[in-house]
Each structure stands twice: as structure tokens, then as C-alpha cells.
Structure to design on (253 residues):
């Protein structure tokens, strides 16, 4: 039995299918990440096609069997286009990291309204924030998303005994003291030496409400070090590098 379902969705990814069709991956308000089929949006410069641009937030209607893996999109009305983010290279690449994290660490068809509204709010903040605070905002967004889905690294203390430690082991996802690490520092598994300033900023990114996070004004080296740590943490989690990390690294050169 075919059913019509209406929901809100944010476009995470589109994939060409045939000559003019698309498979669209959405983050939805009530079903988590889903895939849907768009018939012939590439044939014309229609508003329907515009609603399928990456990061576009729309009201969508889906038609198909009740538990169809890929229902058909019958209607898509734009709520927020977020074209400002797509048109800003640094913003788009950094948000692409969030999209990669979501698609890699969040299962399909698993409802999570907190993740949906978090991601929507982040897009709103990035669109409306001044350029001078965006470097910090992008890092904060990444940390907060990882914390929300349960994959944030632990930096506050040794993850095994709770003792003091400034050595982060990406393969463990936590800082480990010398006693608890499998090998002495400098031997065996690689680690990253962090400092108290980085830990202080990291703790505040998780604890402070996102709408006042612009008050955090870390030095650029703290942002760079934390970004690198997060990339290595994700590399171990996913057994691969984020594709967007190569673009951000290239832009920084």
C-alpha cells in the first residue's frame, strides 16, 4: 500500500541516477537520515531542482510503500536555502565535515530530533555570524555534534583511571596517563600532546550554549591544534580521512 508522508528535511547529499534523476540524502525531523528519489530535477532550472541543492531546508512530500527504502519526492518547498553557506568556500567545506560525520556515524532511518534541530541551528548560526568568529564556530560545531551523537574525544582526564594526563591517544579516543597507556610516551601507539589552554577551550565548547559560544575567543593555534586532533580522532573512528579535511588543509596552506 502506497502512502504519502510529509516531513521537513535538510539535503545532505545528492547522487546522479540515470540521465536526469537524483537520489537525495536528507536529514529529516522525524526519521533521521533517509534517501529519496527525485524524478528529472536536472532537466530544468525549476524551483523543485533548487530545493535539492546541498544544505537546503525544505518541507517535503514522499510517496511510496510504507517502509520503502527509497520513496519518491512528490513535492519540495524551500524553507531556508542557506545559499550563503554554499557560496562561501570555507563555510561550505567546514559544514561538509559535519555532513560527513553525520553520514558516517549516524545510521539510516533512525529518528533523532535533537540532531536535526542541532544541525538546523548550526546552519542558522553560520549563515548569520560575523566572519571573525567563524573559525571558532566551525570547531565548536564539530565538537558539539560529536558530543551529541556520542563520539566526542575525552580530554579532561585519563579515560581509564581519571588521573591527570595531557597525552591524547586517538586509537583510544581519550587522554591516558603514563601508567594506563599501553607503552611509555614516544614508543608504541601514537599520541598527541595537548595543553591546558586547549582542554579549557574544549570543555567550554561542550558546556556553553551554542548561541553564546561566540564569546569564546581562543587563539588561532588552539583552534588549529584542536582541529587537527579532531581529524585524527575521526580518522581512527572511521578508518579513513574525511574527504573535506583535504580541502581545509589545502586552503590553509
Amino acid at each position: 500500500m502506497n502512502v504519502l508522508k510529509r516531513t521537513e528535511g535538510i539535503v545532505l547529499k545528492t547522487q546522479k541516477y540515470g540521465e536526469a534523476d537524483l537520489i537525495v540524502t536528507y536529514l529529516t525531523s522525524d526519521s533521521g537520515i533517509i534517501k529519496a528519489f527525485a524524478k528529472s530535477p536536472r532537466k530544468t532550472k525549476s524551483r523543485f531542482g533548487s530545493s535539492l541543492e546541498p544544505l537546503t531546508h525544505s518541507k517535503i512530500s514522499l510517496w511510496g510503500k510504507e517502509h520503502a527504502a527509497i520513496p519518491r519526492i512528490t513535492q519540495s518547498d524551500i524553507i531556508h536555502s542557506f545559499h550563503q553557506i554554499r557560496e562561501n568556500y570555507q563555510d561550505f567545506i567546514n559544514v561538509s565535515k559535519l555532513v560527513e560525520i553525520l553520514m558516517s556515524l549516524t545510521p539510516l532511518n533512525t529518528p533523532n530530533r535533537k540532531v536535526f534541530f542541532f544541525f538546523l541551528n548550526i546552519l542558522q548560526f553560520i549563515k548569520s555570524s560575523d566572519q571573525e568568529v567563524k573559525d571558532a564556530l566551525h570547531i565548536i560545531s564539530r565538537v558539539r555534534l560529536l558530543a551529541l551523537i556520542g563520539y566526542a574525544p575525552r580530554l579532561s582526564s585519563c579515560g581509564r583511571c581519571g588521573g591527570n594526563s595531557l597525552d591524547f591517544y586517538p586509537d583510544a579516543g581519550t587522554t591516558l596517563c603514563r601508567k594506563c597507556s599501553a607503552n611509555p610516551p614516544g614508543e608504541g601507539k601514537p599520541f598527541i600532546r595537548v595543553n591546558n589552554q586547549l582542554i579549557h577551550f574544549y570543555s567550554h565548547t561542550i558546556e556553553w550554549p551554542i548561541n553564546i559560544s561566540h564569546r569564546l575567543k581562543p587563539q588561532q593555534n588552539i583552534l588549529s591544534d584542536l582541529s587537527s586532533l579532531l581529524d585524527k580522532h575521526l580518522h581512527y573512528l572511521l578508518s579513513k580521512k574525511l574527504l573535506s579535511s583535504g580541502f581545509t588543509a589545502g586552503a590553509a596552506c
